[in-house]
Amino acid sequence: MADAKKSRSAIRTKSSERKKSANKADRGKGGNPQEEEVKESLAYKVISEDQTNALKELTPRELEAKLAEILNLTNYHISLPEACVLDYYVAGFWFTKEENFNNQQTSAFFTLLKILVENIKDKHMSLAESLVEFKRLLVGIGMENCPKSGGLECFDISQAKVITNYFTDSLFQHFKLYEFLFTQEPSEEVITTEVKVEVPPMADIPFPPPLDEGMTEDLWREYIMTPPTTPEPETNDEAGENEEVSKEKGKTDEIAKDILTTIKPEHIKTIIRKTADGIFENFKIEVETKLKERENNYAAKITKR
């Protein structure tokens, strides 16, 4: 009886050892694909090392266009969900530049960014499920030879805290907004507005046109400048008055001519003599007074001698 019990226990131990060895072989051959997938690094899955180097040298505007090309976001100019996703990717990549992540860390962070966004967009995960997934991806940071790793082992513990704070502030805090964005279809509204724009003419080299409305002087004089006022026509009353004045003037001229024809030459001589005597009489008196003064002066000088 004792020998039989020993043989049975030996058989059981051998069978258990065989099962263990079979399980190890299955694990080595890929028997648990989930563990292998977890152990794989997240770096260079979405953007390669060359792309990471090239993206770091771009400006925000250029980075937006390049990421749209890499991620095949062709309608971000007119689609609100694509525009929000692209904006979030650009902000996340710029965050890696500010934190001075190396190429491997930048690529791994970008993959993590894309996974969390697609969990909301495609898999429609809740906030609790997204937090569990994020926690699973952080496993293995700061640990050596960890059997289960989320693929972010290129980061240290301090960087993990920074990453956690970033996703908390940018994604999880506004989770309902992103959930609403990816689940509700926005109503399309087409608004057209006609705007007439007048372009000024090109400048004439070497001198530009006048500053008044940016047009040439000829056009300004022809179409804009206020024309001079036209003279008002003369009324009939003024014309009648002018005719009367001219008639009276003609009459006086005729009367003067008649008077000159009636005067005799003797009368003219007497008139001229009288006018000359009236004019020269004052001059004569003045001359006589001066002569008397001189005579008195000479007489005074003689008496002194």
Automatic annotation (TrEMBL):
Q: Name one Pfam family in it.
A: CLAMP
| Spans traversing the lipid bilayer | none
Q: Where is this region: Disordered?
A: 1-37, 227-250
InterPro entries assigned: CLAMP
Signal sequence bounds: none
Compositionally biased intervals (Acidic residues):
234-243
- Bias class Basic and acidic residues marks the residues at 14-29
Name of the protein this chain belongs to:
Ciliary-associated calcium-binding coiled-coil protein 1-like isoform X2
Organism, scientific name: Actinia tenebrosa (Australian red waratah sea anemone)
- The gene name on file is LOC116299616
